[in-house]
Amino acid sequence: MCRLCGNSSKKNDCGKESRRHDRDTPPLRQWAIKWKSSEKEFQSVSALTKTSMPVEVRLACRSGEWAMQTSGLAPGFAQANLVILPREDAAEFRQFCERNPKPCPLLEVTEPGCHSLNRLATDADLRTDLPMYRVWRKGELAAEVSDITEFWRDDLVSFLIGCSFTFEAALIENQIPVRHIELGCNVPMFQTNVPCQPAGKFHGPLVVSMRPLKPAHAIRAVQITSQFPDVHGAPIHIGLPHDIGIFDLQKPDFGDAVRIATDELPVFWACGVTPQAALMAAKPDFAITHSPGCMFVSDVKDSSLRQPN
Amino acid sequence: MCRLCGNSSKKNDCGKESRRHDRDTPPLRQWAIKWKSSEKEFQSVSALTKTSMPVEVRLACRSGEWAMQTSGLAPGFAQANLVILPREDAAEFRQFCERNPKPCPLLEVTEPGCHSLNRLATDADLRTDLPMYRVWRKGELAAEVSDITEFWRDDLVSFLIGCSFTFEAALIENQIPVRHIELGCNVPMFQTNVPCQPAGKFHGPLVVSMRPLKPAHAIRAVQITSQFPDVHGAPIHIGLPHDIGIFDLQKPDFGDAVRIATDELPVFWACGVTPQAALMAAKPDFAITHSPGCMFVSDVKDSSLRQPN
Predict the structure, then answer these.
(1) Chain B partners of A307 at a C-beta cutoff of 8 Å?
(2) How is chain B classified by DSSP, letter by letter?
(3) Closest residue on chain A to B219 (Cα)
(4) Looking at beta carbons, which residues of chain A come within 8 Å of B223?
(5) Is the whole model's pTM more than 0.90, yes or no?
(6) Fewer Cβ atoms within 10 A, N terminus or C terminus of chain B?
(7) What's the pLDDT tens digit per position in B24-51?
(8) What is the ipTM of this complex?
(9) Domains: count for chain B
(10) Could you list the residue range(s) of the whole structural domain that residue A48 is in?
(11) Is there a domain that residue B28 lies in?
(12) Which segment of A83-97, A121-135, A197-211, B19-33 scores lowest on mean pLDDT?
């Protein structure tokens, strides 16, 4: 199974062939998108509705009723990536995030052993409130479970990292079309030749997501996403992919390829896959992450993450 | 003489050959830039220094002591374009500016007959306080003078329009190099195929200025100039000049061509030549403008024009 995108495949890792994997075996995200177009089908698998509040989503996860992707759930509320590490690795990972705030914007970090939150929700239990988790030992996937209570330890530190769903919602609200959402597929993601600032064992290249936009939309998108530094903020590059080591936009390293029209520029944002890739490269003895697309649904409104420049 | 850029030439208008004109006959701006590199030479022609306050510049203009370009004078203070029209044309011109705020950002508009200001300075006399003026009759240049007192009428309305000097200063302050300033030449300007919103007799294409920037600088430049809506604000286009009717970046319609490196994108801002071009196309019976580069130097700080997004 691909460790990053969750595709079943003979290959163990997402690589240049990830597009083919995506086509052969639709990733979880596509599955989750399907119910968005069919309220009936959606209701047949869960009591959640498209207007469910974040707490309802978390309780549905806690009860085991909801164990799939969270894209589109609790619209208007921010979702977050999760990385859990033992205290011995947590300090270095925190430093890695702080040195690379564009790909790794920290929304909240817990005290060791604490599985509740302060900023993102007050009633959450990080051991149960995500739909699905991945447990890693020495960089290898050891288990995929919907509840990590049995794995919990008093030295575990949880990192909640901003997610692009928030700024994509803001783009759409401003009439800027987002291609992969229109197509109902995953955003195309690319490894760049831009190294992250390393911190101890954590290192690796910046991974970016790409959205094709008309120039006037690209300018507006810079303005809009600049206001959301906690969810990757402004793009890191625009228009000249060769300069950051991307040579074929139709062959993303992760996610799905999307068409770029002749009147569009590719616009690149720092991506939350960066910290996951750094984590896997570091191969810590023990780690837990969310499963791809199975994010933590917070009580923080997307709009409250908007900061005046 | 070219009506827009002030170059002496057999041609009557700036056109595709303006670059050659610039080379043959250095425009006033280049003259003004020269003194910047030679304090001695500068002091030989005026008591003004590079740190003179705006009021000192205006008084030097009023006394006739300063009658050339204002680029680089009173650094940190905003300068403005000037258009003066009889009341009968002023309403339509105001509407033209209001319908096209990116190329024509109105900083202040006077009452008919009033030659003083409120916002930009409290002690200014618009009849004397610019270095050089142009007087137009039916769209033709009728006189170029350093004092318009003899032309003043009780029905004249003055329009002070924002100037890109302010945002260029902000770019440089943020370590973003501005090519034409480095080269000591005029910014390259292009007519686009984007029509302005017409208002009565005033109409015409949007004119843009172009600055080549590396992608990361272009993104930062969008963020910075977005904060200055009163001086043209964010770029209107980036990267695909064909889409706005520009087919040869080495042949600007006005100003000087500048080199674009392979790792740079052309970034386009709405330009203050737009209202001047609309004015000349409309050919009103009577009008007065500043001479090219001979701006009104205001008491308003560049920083005070910065607006949070």
Answers:
(1) none
(2) --TTT----SSSS--TTHHHHHHHS--HHHHHHHHHT-HHHHHHH-S--TT--HHHHHHHHHTTS--S--TTSSTTEEEEEEEEEEHHHHHHHHHHHHH-TTTS-EEEEPPTT----SSS-SS--TTTSSS-EEEEETTEEEEEES--GGG--TTEEEEEEE-THHHHHHHHHTT---HHHHHTSPPPEEEEEEEPPPBTTB--EEEEEEEEE-HHHHHHHHHHHHT-GGGT-S-SEES-GGGGT---TTS-SBS------TT-EEEEEE-THHHHHHHHHH--SEEEEEPTT--EEEEEEGGGG----
(3) A222
(4) 222-223, 226, 234, 309
(5) no
(6) C
(7) 333 333 333 333 444 444 444 556 777 8
(8) 0.80
(9) 1
(10) 18-163+278-305
(11) no
(12) B19-33
